[in-house]
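My current task is to audit a protein record that another person submitted. Please read both lines and tell me whether the tokens look consistent with the sequence. Do not assume that whoever made the record got everything right. I have pasted the whole thing underneath without changing anything:

===
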Amino acid sequence: MGCNIGPMPHRTAFKKPKQRRRHFIREWREFRDLTQDQLAARLDMSKASLSRIENFKQPYTQDFLEACAEALRTDPASLIMRNPMDDAAIWSIWDQAAPGERKQIEEVARVLVGGRKVANS
């Protein structure tokens, strides 16, 4: 008497490179003035694997994203949402602002959105 647990679930295939979400891993590496060899060494991985990830030929894992963020002195979300080379982006302006200027930026932003509460204020 065997146990019938049903068919195995269908395995989800990796997305093709053109279907993968945009990330900014290469841009962060270049922003930190690192070569692929240097970042790969920090991540204890091959340059070839890093290159495949940067070129969207291989998916990244959450563990990779977290280790990469630490090596690049940023957070995982920034690696997938934020191009550090975009000088006109609000986060680039924020990063360059002194603490007093950041307070002014917050005040201007509140006025622009009509006095609505801004998260974390």
